[in-house]
């Protein structure tokens, strides 16, 4: 069987004739209502596009009304017809694959529910609003059972003591046997445990 051919009209495809020079014309919309068109590589990161846009925006009206660059992020309409906020600026444009090469610069929001729904939709390849529109009784029954299982699991965790909750949430990864050189790694006959918190430079020793 011959290999499948990508749609030549898909600008995100590697062998697309539209983006033969690996450059994409991206329309960027600023919060001030200004529209700027940029020619960027199809594999450019969101951070790179944002920096290019900011340099161009300096020469456009109403730039003084904008906040700091870190106060904004891009959003787009993805392939599942869902508005997606592009928080991870290390992602490449060709991996995000917007429905159209249009990026809107918006103020960073803090609604975790919408962000989670968008990420789930990207992973499963279908918007969650499409699932909500389904009227299949089997799907409804499955959802009810999954919700009951989740609620029962949450109730069981709430009844645990603090130590049991820690063991259940963060199960220890222990070696099956003590290593031969274990005694050489002790400090004054004691075990030293280093605790480091994420996004924090402080480290505690126990």
UniProtKB/TrEMBL annotation:
The residues covered by the PI3K-ABD domain are 20-109
The record's SMART domains line, in alphabetical order, gives: PI3K_p85B
Entries under Pfam families matching the protein:
PI3K_p85B (PF02192)
Domain of life, per UniProt, equals: Eukaryota
PROSITE patterns, sorted: PI3K_ABD (PS51544)
Q: Tell me its family.
A: Belongs to the PI3/PI4-kinase family.
The protein here is known as PI3K-ABD domain-containing protein
Q: Which organism is it from?
A: Micrurus surinamensis (Surinam coral snake)
Q: Which taxonomic lineage is given here?
A: Eukaryota, Metazoa, Chordata, Craniata, Vertebrata
């Amino acid at each position: 069987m011959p290999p499948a051919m990508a749609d030549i009209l898909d600008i995100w495809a590697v062998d697309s004739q539209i983006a033969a020079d690996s450059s994409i014309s991206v329309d960027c919309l600023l919060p001030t209502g200004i529209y700027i068109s940029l020619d960027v590589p199809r594999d450019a990161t969101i951070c790179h596009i944002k920096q290019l846009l900011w340099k161009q925006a300096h020469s456009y009206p109403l730039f003084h009304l904008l906040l700091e660059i870190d106060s904004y992020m891009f959003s787009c309409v993805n392939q599942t017809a869902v508005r997606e906020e592009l928080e991870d600026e290390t992602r490449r444009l060709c991996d995000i694959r917007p429905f159209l090469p249009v990026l809107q610069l918006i103020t960073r929001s803090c609604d975790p529910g919408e962000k989670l729904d968008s990420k789930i939709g990207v992973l499963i390849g279908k918007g969650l609003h499409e699932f909500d529109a389904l009227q299949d009784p089997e799907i409804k029954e499955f959802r009810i059972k999954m919700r009951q299982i989740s609620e029962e699991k949450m109730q069981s965790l709430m009844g645990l003591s603090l130590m049991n909750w820690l063991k259940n949430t963060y199960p220890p990864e222990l070696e099956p046997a003590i290593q031969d050189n274990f005694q050489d790694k002790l400090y004054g006959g004691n075990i030293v445990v280093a605790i480091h918190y994420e996004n924090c430079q402080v480290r505690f020793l126990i």
